[in-house]
Amino acid sequence: MSSPSSVSLESAPGAVKLPILKVSGLRKTHETAGGDLTVLKDVNLSLDTGDTLAIIGPSGSGKTTLLGLCAGLDDASAGSVELDGMAIELLDQDARAALRNRLVGFVFQSFQLIPTLTAIENVLVPLELRGESGKDIHAEAERLMTEVGLGDRLDHYPLQLSGGEQQRVALARAFIHRPKILFADEPTGNLDAGTSGPIVDMLFRLNREAGTALVLVTHDPALAAKARRVVTMSGGEIVSEEENAAI
Predict the structure, then answer these.
(1) Phi and psi of 76, rounded to 5°?
(2) Alpha-carbon distance 40 to 25, whole Å?
(3) Tens of pLDDT along 121-179?
(4) What 3-state class would DSSP assign to 160?
(5) Which of 1, 80, 103, 160 is the most buried (most CB within 10 A)?
(6) Number of domains the chain contains
């Protein structure tokens, strides 16, 4: 297991390249009035840099819980999650937040835009959290907003944008710091068919162009079929895994 102060083994001479994500024996249990409720049961998976993975399964199967644990947004009851060779359970909250800001992009189903910030200000948030500012990053934010079709919506607030437009702002925000891995929770769940198609195309295009690993939670079979690997969950466990040989 990696330690917080260790140098990534990926950069060591002659070392075997590590997966960008490695999940080992992951378990999540909640205490309830009726006793412990186990949401995840000893989940294991890994993902290489640039790969694509879809997680499917019925509601309540643990998909979103797994995604949040992989991104370091929640604490596991047992097991390990390694991002780029770093075991995130060994990090305090500040170090974990710094790791997320350096490696991770996250697209929430509910967008999670800050209502008091304009669209471009929302996109700039990850870089500002790093202490970065200036004309260059503003130009990059404008470029991404134009790429997602919102070059004329830079100064609009979230409430002035449609659901599809808000999701595109969220995508631009997720990619502004060029993450090594992007987690997307039902990225088309709140969108109509006409809007979801371009969002899906954009996710996989950005994955190809930036080499960012992509992990999707979805109920949409057509979206899942675009990923190279598809994991099916049920009752908090991975019950099957398939590879798309055509990708």
Answers:
(1) -80, 155
(2) 10
(3) 999 998 888 877 778 889 999 998 998 889 999 999 999 999 888 988 998 898 888 88
(4) helix
(5) 103
(6) 1
